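STRUCTURE REQUEST FORM
Protein name: Sterol desaturase/sphingolipid hydroxylase, fatty acid hydroxylase superfamily
Source organism: Cognatiyoonia sediminum
Requested output: structure tokens
Priority: standard
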Amino acid sequence: MPTNKDWNYHPDLPLQDPSIFSRPTDAKFLSGWFARNWLTLSERVLMLILAVAAYYTLYPSLASAQSFAPGWMLQILIANYILVIAVAGGLHWYFYIKRGQGKDLKFDHRDQTRNNRNFKFSDQVKDNMFWTLASGVPQLSAFQIVTYWLMANGYAPTITFASNPIWFVLAIILLPIWSAFHFYWVHRFLHVPFMYTRFHALHHRNINIGPWSGFSMHPVEHLLYLSTLCIHWIVASHPIHVIYHVIYQGPGAAMTHTGYEDLLVKDKRKLALGTFYHTLHHRYFECNYGNQEMPWDRWFGTFHDGTAEGTAETRARKKRMYS
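Status: completed
Returned output:
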């Protein structure tokens, strides 16, 4: 298992490019990408299953959202609290309390921080929980409430599977790609010194990330990050698409910030979780602003491939930015 003095574990380096944009005309590569993401029990498939289940069991019907009534709005808020607490809390319990996997496939040597006054309550996990639950879930729910109201009143275009089955399926596949596109540019904006020092620095307290770190942000950052959901205001979708997108942005952030690359079951990798790509961003800051879905970091010279040379380039770029 690859390891060194900087990392408890890291994947093979330098990091390769798994983006569909790296070889868009290679049919074999594209079919492999599709199979990995959509024909196995992947993170995306799990979130889609959860979205469909939540649509039928947790969330109100679209018909009830024609006016801003407290009942259905509160139902959305409670449903989102249930999902975020279940996913982030469940992952934290398994990996950091139960220690169900020890340090196998854990990127950072260190545990979550305590007795550190940089964090609210001098505790990293409590700080992350506070910002996630006090700002993240309410704002996530507010975007979903407005989207439901717009759809219910015909102000946002809607579809059903019966009316447009091709776009219904295609929209599910494209939503993570849209999210990655939106995230990169919002993230670059948040690293402008004025925005970083006032807002984004709160998220970057988490140099050593854990499940509760993913959705722990300043309220201004939550507003920008969650504006990705506004795509449903102009592009035809169904409540299942909205719920899938909500899960991808909220509970999904806990999964990608787990701090472990994969869930092991009987020593076999069963579920991809955190990415070393984004873990490098939390360690070195001015690199890997996006994710591996989109090629922007490679195209704009902000890619860190995990090597010592990549670290030197990132540190030099950071010095130039803040000098």
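Reviewer notes: Residues 36-266 form one domain. The first strand starts at residue 262 and ends at 265.
Form closed.
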